[in-house]
Design goal:
Layout lengths: L1 H12 L21 E2 L1 H7 L2 H13 L5 H17 L4 E5 L11 E3 L1 E2 L4 E2 L3 H5 E2 L19 E5 L5 E4 L2 E10 L8 H19 L9 E15 H5 L2 H6 L24 H16 L4 E6 L5 E6 L2 E2 H21 L2 E4 L13 E9 L12 H20 L1 H7 L3 H6 L12 E2 L2 H12 L11 H5 L4 H7 L9 E3 L4 E3 L9 H27 L4 H15 L12 H9 L8 H4 L6 H9 L5 H54 L5 H32 L4 H30 L10 H4 L4
Parallel strand pairs: 2-9, 16-17
Antiparallel strand pairs: 1-8, 2-3, 4-5, 6-7, 7-9, 8-9, 10-12, 10-13, 10-14, 10-15, 11-12, 15-18, 17-18
Helix pairs in contact: 6-17, 9-10, 11-17, 11-18, 12-17, 14-18, 17-18, 22-23, 22-24, 23-24
Amino acid sequence: MAKLRFSALELVQKRQKVEVNPPSNQISDYFGENAFGLKQMRLTLSPNFYEKVKYAIRKGKKIDIDTAEAIASSVKTWALNKGVTHYTHWFQPLTGTTAEKHDSFYDYSSEIENFKGGTLAQQEPDASSFPSGGIRSTFEARGYTAWDPSSPMFILGHTLCIPTIFVSYTGEALDYKAPLLKAHEALNRAATRVCRFFDRNVAYVHATLGCEQEYFVVDKALYAARPDLVMAGRTVFGHNPARGQQLDDHYFGSIPPRIYDYMRDFEIECLKLGIPVSTRHNEVAPSQFEVAPTYEDINVATDHNQLLMDAMNKVAEKHNLKVLFHEKPFAGLNGSGKHNNWSLINSFGENLYQPSSSARENLQFLTFFVTTIKAVHEHADLLRASIASAGNDYRLGSNEAPPAIISVFIGKQLTAVLDELEHNGNIKVKKGDNLYMKLGIDKIPEIILDNTDRNRTSPFAFTGNKFEFRAVGSDINVAAPMTVLNAAVADQLHKFAETLDKELEKGVDKRIAIITILREYIKSSKNIRFEGDGYSDEWIKEAKRRKLPNIKDTPRALDAYLTTKNKALFKRNKICTERELEARHEILLANYIMKIQIEARVMGDLALNHVIPTAVNYQNKLIANANGLKGLGIDNDAVIKTIKEISRHIEIVKNGVYEMIEERKRVNKIDDPRKKAIGYCDDIKEKYFDKIRYSVDKLELYVDSEEWPLPKYREMLFLR
């Protein structure tokens, strides 16, 4: 194995530069050339059909068959002219990745390329092997994909990809997109209803999203020489290098040339697909980087994030690199997140979280701002569940990511505004009084302008004109947390509107009624607001006093999906049925079990078949050396001490692995998915992983570097 390691290192040294040639020096010349959205439809469809599809997308309505036929004919011609031979319904099953089944445009019966509106609108892929959480039996293979016209079709290679939802034969959602679309529509209805208290001409509201994608990059040869990276996506062993991230010299530093070429290359592919990537930089840890797009409609942004990760993976192969999206691929170093920057935009293009010089609009800003905080307070447990995964558990609260306690950061100035609204008592308005001036609402734009402080330890932070959900993991499909956030805010906005309607029926002044409701929200949700250090022990104690949930592991966090309160939230807003929620809960538990099971198996394999034999061989060399020194009458106490230390750690590793194997056998017999997941968490991961790793990492320090079987951190993390 050591030979494999050194051959991998030699291969890294021989890597040749990959030339990157963009189609044009002007991004505008090729942006979106491989995407078929409204721009292309406007150029290729008749005005009548174009207006129909635009209306259907805006309203979330079905497209009639005649319009579907026109679009199918148009997109077929466009795709064939680009060398496309096949099409696929591209969907996002509950595996967390994407799926596709390719069909040829060529019709053997008519001997021409053919593509009908009915084929565009719906297909029937084999659903038997996708996780369903008991919604259907394995032998029931039927499932349906249905076209989502609000997300542009696109070309990958020689295949036209059609974004779709994925449902079972009986209609239950088996994917991430369907619930997101339903939650977005619920948010649209609720937010539009509230907007019309301020402007009756608002036609709709949509959420926007910008995902800051963090990731690690390692050389492909070194990746292949690390079975743990290949199998589990993270290193289960590995001693920290002498130099890691402690000098803060990588963050925003000069991008290494090889990585720079890779970044440019995958950005070109993304830009062709219409993904508006705009930012690239070094992140905190060595070999960690970030790419971020501009904001888009939340559904399109979610699809584009999945496409972005796919493009990054494919282009990395070309550069002999591997991308690591795992939240914590290297222990002791910064983990990777996917900060979700979320906002609401009305039909006039106005950001509802952006204060202005208009006092009336500032009251609207406060309404959406405070109601969102109230929604997070009401469903903090559900937001925590939405970002729960085996990988994210390693990252949350590790001094580079927010803690598992959901809290909201708004900054000192806005805190002062809310405190003033909370404590200023009943508002008495005389004729001619300026209510907005009395409340300080007219000063909010100035407050926002100066409110530039940020809090890296906050899971959910207001950052000027948007909320940033910072706790989302790098590898996750963002549709899950965005479905929950949209649902929670939609529900609270509906409650706000219902309460306001009742007050208006009593003849209460609308402005007074709004302020009164907001004051109650501010008081009741105050516990969720926190401006301090989320990593401190004091905050953990304070959060407990405030009765905020602090759920550190996935199996217990996922319980939130099945509470009566949260089931009612999804049902009330027509997003998920109880059966769909139970299915998702079961699937997420199963995924957690399999991830920890794989990590445990990889640890056992590496320890017993690689680490221990290497350590024993090196120990034997030391014993021979000690005996030789003894024969020469030379003091060998230091060598003997090293031999004993190696022997001690070998025993700890060996016994730990054997005990873990037996414990895994016991846990595997548990039938209840939740109890089984907790068993893997408490009795395997928590009990054995760190213990075994500690001794393996000590052996890495003792054993001759040329004999150590795995590429070391210092060899993997400093690509140039």
